[in-house]
Write a structure and sequence with these properties.
By secondary structure, this protein is α+β, with helices and mostly antiparallel strands. It has helices at residues 53-56, 63-70, 75-87, 91-103, 105-108, 110-122, 128-136; strands spanning 15-18, 22-27, 30-36.
């Protein structure tokens, strides 16, 4: 069985030997890694020694790290990030999505990002793509649905021939 292991061996062909309790990985008949085997279905173990220096900082990520990053941009950004963090089975997925949302402030500013997150929360759709589309289409600058004036006319004009629910008994 072939496997690519450790960032130094990306793109190189390796061989893997495994038993019930451990995994050994070889490159050119030389063992490059030895791991205890994790038999829990759906779980994984990341050995930070095998990460490149540019990726080691990812191991410092936590929900609290992203809460601290979101807080300076506003309460709605923080609320969206908390929803994203709670919605994923694997934390790494929610971390990348959270970082994407927080980085939208670079292009649009904190105030607009906070307004976009407020709108996303109102529709229960806190996702990177939804928030980005709100910002791109300037929907964050429109009044929120609950803040719109009562004088908005319905899209169907009044007409004498329109029957109410009593006509369908």
């Amino acid at each position: 069985m072939l496997l690519q292991c450790s960032y130094r061996y990306i793109g190189k062909e390796t061989m893997i030997h495994y038993t019930k309790s451990r995994i050994e990985i070889y490159y050119n008949h030389e063992r490059i890694a030895l791991h205890q085997r994790n038999l829990n279905k759906g779980s994984y173990i990341t050995n930070t020694d095998h990460l490149s220096s540019t990726h080691k900082f990812y191991s410092d990520w936590s929900p609290e790290f992203f809460r601290k990053k979101a807080l300076p941009h506003g309460e709605y950004v923080l609320a969206c990030i908390e929803k994203v963090l709670a919605s994923q089975d694997y934390p790494e997925i929610s971390y990348k999505r959270s970082l994407g949302i927080i980085h939208l402030n670079r292009s649009y500013g904190s105030e607009r990002l906070n307004n976009a997150c407020k709108r996303a929360l109102a529709t229960d759709s806190c996702s990177y793509l939804r928030i980005k589309n709100i910002l791109k289409n300037n929907m964050d600058r429109l009044p929120a649905i609950d803040e719109q004036p009562d004088t908005i006319k319905p899209h169907i004009p009044f007409h004498n021939n329109i029957r109410g629910a009593s006509a369908y008994q």
